[in-house]
Batch of 3 targets.
Target 1
Amino acid sequence: MDLENILNEVTKIAKISGNLIRERFDSKEKFVFEEKGINDYVTEFDKQSEKLIIEGLSTLLPEAGFIAEENTKNTRSEIYNWIVDPIDGTTNFMHGIFPVAVSIALMKENEIILGVVYEVGMDECFAAIKDKGAFLNGKRIQVSDNDSLKKSLIATGFPFRNFSLLEPYLNILGELTGKTRGIRRLGSAATDLAYVACGRFDAFYEYDLKPWDVAAGTLIISEAGGKNTDFNGQNSFIFGQQIISSNNKIHNLLINIVKKHLKKTRF
């Protein structure tokens, strides 16, 4: 399998979808949306975008299955599966603000081997192939080399569906606010992860995430020299709904703070 060629084609698909998102922003048309759950929205454009991406990926690798956010096609294969988020940051999209990203990953059995995150607002394409490094618009990227929380800028996402851990989660936020340069909440987990990979953020943590939120970004981070785990320091971050991603140097510091406040770490 020529993963370099596949990556080039996936990048084209992500950018085509991203350009349509940008055009939709510029059109100023009202969004027609439905509420999938509490504070969890999908627009007609999400579904249309996902269909476009799936059509392109199906031609590219016909034997692969799909794990897709909007469920336009969820048919898992035994070996290869695409994990797709057509619009990561739907609430941002609905309100006309960036970041908004397209996230596409290829999983072989239980391992992510290719990932693309295209952030539409800044026209930035983050990409990686396993064991081949990580790139931003074709240039190699690395995580930060910061080994101090005091000098760190941390990204997170606030709970918006599952509020069962809200109080301890806010306690984590409080502690990190006092021990770091600051906390950012952009509204797009895929973008947060990409920014960790290129060193803009030193780390990211969040719970109640889905595979399509993190699959591509975590590969890009690991290929840029970073680390991804669940809140217990284990590897169940793709399907485990919780993640800490970092430059590796401050990873254990973050795990200790998260575990101190979050006694319950399964959903």
Target 2
Amino acid sequence: MEQKDKDLIPLAEELKFANSYMELLKMRFEDGINFNITETVSNPELKIVPLSLQLLLENAVKHNVITSKSPLEINIYEDKGYLIVENNINLKQSLEKSTKIGLKNIDQRYSLISKEKIVVTDNNNIFRVKLALLTQKIKIMRTDYINDNNRYIRAKERVDELKGFYGSLISYVIVIPFLIYINYRTSWNFQWFWFPMFGWGLGLVIQSFKAFGYGSNWEERKIREIMENENNL
């Protein structure tokens, strides 16, 4: 989490994290998983996209059968300016088709900072990913655009709620008098128009609470308010 906003981190740090992560997987799967991670780095200036190894390791565990009789073998090593991450293939039969979101995520992050692309090969026996090792200066990624996008999404949801409420209100104002008229012209002795008028009206009241700040938005504001008050204590 400390490295999540950086575009690059030292290769040695990423390898150290990957080794710790694999130790946890080893405790979980015991003889079902074996791994070999290089312990030395050819150049201390080499850097890599943070958490890329974790994504690749998670994918290997997710997509392959892991048993003591058919262990998952994972190797991570340097080769000619690349970090190689490879594993044997023993795909789970019931697994849904892969979306490759993890690989796309790594590739997109590389494209933001370098012309280098990740290289993926799959020969049905070994799945191999080559990650380019970079030497540029570490800097913090700008995340303002993410916050702006989140604000836009929330604003659009708010506008959609208001549009939905006003649309329902207009329909109510038009339809209910029409139903009253039909009821009056057909069988005024049984005034059934009260049922849709009150039922629909109750729905409008509930919708208005949500549209004008007494629904989830109100809950979020109260949660933030309580948290701020606790922080000030």
Target 3
Amino acid sequence: MILFDSHSHIDDKCYDNDLDDVIERAENENVQGIMIVGIDINTSLKAIKIAANNKNIITSVGIHPHDAKYCSQKNLDDLISIAKENPCVKAWGEIGLDFNRMFSPVKDQENCFTNQLEIAGTLDLPLIFHERDSKGRFYDILKSNGPKNRKGVVHCFSGTKEDLFKYLDLGYYIGITGILTLKERGKYLRSIAPLIPEDRILIETDAPYLTPAPQKNKIRRNEPSFVKSVLLRLAEIRNTDPENLSQIIFNNTRTLYRVDF
């Protein structure tokens, strides 16, 4: 079985004391690729430092919708420079809309989102999307802004079947997290996950968040090695061989992020 954690935040301070152990445990589970996703300038820079010492770790840069009120032109220009200067930066994100917690006003979120879509297009970088409770606005912006050949992944998909097909029709990958493994919270996702074409699925931890079962019963903090639990549950509900599925998803992730390890 070969695994790629397509979305993590192991730059988080909760890993500062044992990051090497976390990475080693991932390697022991044959996690051969990890994407550390940036949410602002500081996290993007920290992720790049981690990647510098680990050949199978890649990063993204971007401004999360929670921080959209800080999405100044200077901050965007700084991120553009960071992306251009560091070969480990393989995507732009995580960007999008989050109307659930409303840490930034709607107008700021939408402006920040559309500006970053344009930047990613200019830099020819795939996108990592975040969407929560946007009531269709996220999809409307994606559909009306940008080329049809844009590549990206809808991170931590937890929408409806209709949402799923809309994103697939736009050509995007679907990121599946540990939510899939949770008895109640993952019930609906398990019902529609078999509908995702196998060449459009990515798996992710979103570590340190969304710890999957069975680890969730004992450990609060998620980590890349636990992506194996997501893969095994996904293979089970799709009634397919986990080793074969792991290879397909690994190749999907390499294709999106354009890496050859």
